[in-house]
């Protein structure tokens, strides 16, 4: 655009003026820093200018405290979080068959909440030894038991040596980029490990393209922005001024370039998993799923799940990276299709088995953690976690095949013997967990989530069975850790009943199953105990999408229990009934507060938070304001905007999705397997519509109280 056009176009002229004004403002702020800061800080800024850093990245350093100041700030390490409403652990959770009451984290958090912090005897020498001493036991020292996980920092010399700015055009600020990488490896990497960490970082340093690529780096950084708490606008995925928007845009550009090349690579498959997660965080679940579908197609073309004929002669590093990617992709699709009640995309696990940890620990790698004021490093026992988590997802994949049919087949009622065998496999898996993953010793967030996932799956199935599919819009479904999970279709309810109540195989592999209500109470109790212990130790402020799922599930269950208790209680209720109602309210307040905290990192949790709050009784809403310090509800115009945005982000291909859900399910079952794949999207659309109706048509008395 030439000068004459600029002068004749007032809109372009105004845009140019705003851009120049912003640029001048940045320069003025950098100049003010050089003039007003202490000499040593001003020298550091000047050196960054001489090395070519742009003014905006320098300013971001100072604003976020990443230039000298942040190095002197000790991360949050308070002894424990406090429950927002009722402090004691509810009596209904303190049962003799609750294994988590015998855990070390319970002893540190509940039984000794105000005792001086002392190291367990078996770990007493660890504080005086070097890094290798922390490998001697699978029980961590006192640090992880007395400090929240988000206070830790990933310690990895490879990150310190990396220059991520060579792989992205978004920013040249390597200090910030390294902080983002540490945040990613701390929060999301362990739960969904799309690639082998050491290979990725080594290739980043060496400028190799085998296990690192601009696409993968930008995808990782886009995800890391959601967990990096210094970015206060990290949930605003629509804002082009945010770092996350920039990295995601850059990743999409590289994706399109690679697709145009027509040749799939391991890093492309790995990036597809990361991009799917990012889109899910941004509430664009269906769009994100397309990346996984393309990754599966690439994997089949590369025969990634098959054992190559020359496997033994392959370069060991290439072989390990290839096999790690195959297992990670298999586990990702297994997890997603199971929680979406869909057929698996891949029927069988990779032909190359997971290596024994003792035989090849380097295949898995390790994530080392450094806690504030600690002189040692703690291993996360990543190898044991990854192996156990992957084996768990193999079982999930087989359950999906049994309940929903193998890939390409129509659904049919499963044989009870197959369902029973799968159930006993789950029990055997749980009983065989290594010491670092036992109920006694778990403390890291990924370890606790693995146990929660086990109980969450059973609780969700039992809830669907006990409430019935037709009641789903009132009790609401659970969601998958990185996507939305929906209730089992009606034809699968009997299959789930068989899973929980069928006779064991001819050769007994476990104890007899308890009655349905007993099983529900058992797993719901342990599930909530884990969630509460997670909060006491780690809080709900750091990015953790599976925690959002757990909070939502427990919130819906508790809301239903409160409704039932109100209907069945005497008027006025007895003291015992009052105590029970208060304990349920405490759980609901805790869950809703957690959803609000998670919503600071990603939009999906903001939507779920408003959905949960809109369905709460006015008494519980008052408790939220009093004990959880949450803001008042948004006005109707804002609520309408959010509902419309959410519905656009979650496409619903069927106009009748706003009708009764059960009627739609019956229609879809009559129209064939292709239409069945859309059931989940329709259920969510009904939930969003209900959310909008509650906000738009709520009684004026409730609105006035909420806004007051």
TrEMBL record:
Chain coiled-coil ranges: none
Signal peptide (from-to): none
Keyword Cell membrane: no
Keyword Nucleus attributed: yes
Domain of life of the native organism: Eukaryota
Keyword list, A-Z: Nucleus
Domain Xylanolytic transcriptional activator regulatory: start-end pairs: 181-430
InterPro entries in the cross-refs: Notoamide_regulator (IPR053187), XnlR_reg_dom (IPR007219)
CDD domains hit by this protein: fungal_TF_MHR
Basic and acidic residues bias: start-end ranges: 125-134
UniProt region (Disordered), positions on chain: 116-147, 652-681
Protein name: Xylanolytic transcriptional activator regulatory domain-containing protein
Lineage of producing organism: Eukaryota, Fungi, Dikarya, Ascomycota, Pezizomycotina
